[in-house]
Amino acid sequence: MTSAVIPFSPAQVEAASDREARIARLERRLSRELLARREAEAIAEAATHRLYRQGERMRLLADLALEANRSDDLDTVLRAALRAIGSQTGWPVGHVQLVETDAAAMDWLQPTALWLAPPDMDIVALRRATTPRRAQIGGGVLGQVMRLRGACSIESLASCPAERRRAASALGLNQGVGFPILVGDEIAAVVEFFHDHGRGPDAETLAFLDQVGAVLGRAFERRRAERAAQEARARLEESLAAAEAASRAKTHLLAVASHEVRTPLNAVLGLAEVLARSPLDATQREHVDGVRQAGGMLLRLLSSVLDFARIESGATPLVPTPFNLADLAREVTGVWRAAAGAAQLDLQLDLSACPDPCWISADSGKIEQTLTNLVSNAIKFTPAGGKILVRVETTPSAAPTFRIVVEDSGAGVPAEDIDRIFDPFQQAALGREAGGAGLGLAICAANLRAMGGDIGYQPAPERGSQFWFSFVAEAVDAQAEPAPVDALTDLPLRILAAEDNPANQRVLRLLLEQVGITPTVVEDGAAAVEAARSTPFDLILMDANMPRMDGPSAVEAIRALGIGKDRTPIVMLTANVFEDDVRRYRAAGADGVLAKPLAVAELYAVLAEVQNRVAGEGLEPFPI
């Protein structure tokens, strides 16, 4: 039985053909969509990889920047950079070479000990082949980096020095990459890598390496700044040491000069004082007064230099004592009234704005020195027939403020000199003509600074100058006045004097004999110790610089004897009166210090205190 063929109708054929066409179109569309999706996935994967790589590189840069800011060791930062770059790129070998400039201004690449290599790779031959060479000469990645001043790569090591090329090839490394470390526009170092990837880094990677170079450049810049700071600090320390050595030398020189000048000056002024207290005719007294005045001027000049040395070292301590300010003003003007009269000047004192008596506690020495300087200058710069007025003013309160004005009718200070007259060694034209060292007003200013006061200048209301200074002082009760020097006669005191200079021995004997004292005089400290061991004394006067045993050592030895029920007062009589000297004398056991040239009033004041002690009235601490 044969089957019958049923023919398709034209409609059916057409329908089947349409289905096949639709299926073909759907297949083509599906194929396009699959291709598009694969392309989109590839793009997304590449973008994701690129974003990941960028993120990793940003993290690497941030880590390097943190390490560069945190670490004080530049090598640690560079090693971290080698490891990070090698890990991210897969480049196995890396090295850092520094760029140094020689005396001929030529740049040289200097290999370092900073290498990156896998533990199982022997790079000894490559390291041996890496030697210093001119930076701008030669091929290879190093020379290219130096020429381009940016990151670059080479696909063949053929242009490298032969020995380095052979050593790298033996390790299977045939390509190079490098980038500069820039500090500003200067190449400070070059980082190089070796690899065998077959394809060099892309432009994005090279740009990343330049970013790494910029970060490392800041670390180099920081190290240079620290090195410069260290060198500057070392220079400052050297300068400070030199300045301190110069200051010590200057202090030593001043101490020696002070001693060498004060010792003979003590004899000059001491003998002049003895003569002045002797019967003299008018001519003889005039000659003696001339010697005393000239010696006094020399002593004041010496004291000014020493005072300025103390000002420079900051050693201007305050010595507050109770005193009558009105009496001090009278004494200073009284001392200068004869000089003013000889210059045909009218010197007056006005205490109408100051209570009298006016007992205060302050550094009377600094106040007296300042007032003396100002009065002396007024006399020096005021022409004959002029007037000088010293005025003391006060503002009453619990801690009153005192202002002392010295006004003269001289030419005044030129406007261009006013701002500098209180500086050391600065003088107006009149001051240079009159002579002097230019230290007086500088010392006055230092005195007032130490006291917390102030000093200044202004033109006088009509003509001339007004110099003034002010300070705050505490009001105190009136003190008992010391006995006048003239009352010190025939003192029954036993005094030991240690003095090696024959002229000063004579001066001391004569001054003591004028008040009825015959001293025991010895020539050195050892003899003073023996005399104190064998004989009791009411007072010991001790020079500082003596042969065999100096004064401080003798004082220590006498104190160690422990002789007598009461402690015998020991007063240093010396030309060495710097602050360090006085502390040394005190530490040795001395009770006080009298400076040479000897002020007779101060010597007699000590004798009066000792007399009171012997009489059972007690002994106050000796002032220094």
Task: Outline the fold blueprint.
Layout: H1 10-70, H2 74-89, E1 93-101, E2 107-116, H3 124-129, E3 133-134, H4 140-148, E4 152-154, H5 162-170, E5 175-183, E6 186-195, H6 203-276, H7 282-313, E7 321-324, H8 325-342, E8 346-353, E9 359-362, H9 364-381, E10 387-395, E11 401-408, H10 429-434, H11 440-451, E12 454-459, E13 465-472, E14 474-475, E15 495-498, H12 502-513, E16 520-522, H13 525-534, E17 539-542, H14 551-561, E18 570-574, H15 579-588, E19 592-595, H16 600-614
Parallel strand pairs: 8-10, 15-16, 15-17, 17-18, 18-19
Antiparallel strand pairs: 1-2, 1-6, 2-3, 4-5, 5-6, 7-9, 9-14, 10-11, 11-13, 12-13
Helix pairs in contact: 1-2, 1-6, 2-6, 6-7, 6-12, 7-11, 8-9, 9-11, 13-14
How would you describe what is shown here?
- The chain is α/β, with parallel strands linked by helices and 624 residues long.
- The protein has 4 domains: 71-201, 2-Layer Sandwich (Beta-Lactamase); 262-310; 320-475, Histidine kinase-like ATPase, C-terminal domain (Heat Shock Protein 90, 2-Layer Sandwich); 485-614, 3-Layer(aba) Sandwich (Rossmann fold), CATH 3.40.50.2300.
- It has 16 helices and 19 strands.
- The chain has helices at 10-70, 74-89, 124-129, 140-148, 162-170, 203-276, 282-313, 325-342, 364-381, 429-434, 440-451, 502-513, 525-534, 551-561, 579-588, 600-614, and strands at 93-101, 107-116, 133-134, 152-154, 175-183, 186-195, 321-324, 346-353, 359-362, 387-395, 401-408, 454-459, 465-472, 474-475, 495-498, 520-522, 539-542, 570-574, 592-595.
- A hairpin with a 2-residue loop joins β5 and β6.
- The longest helix has 74 residues, at 203-276.
- Mean pLDDT is 81; it is low at 431-437.
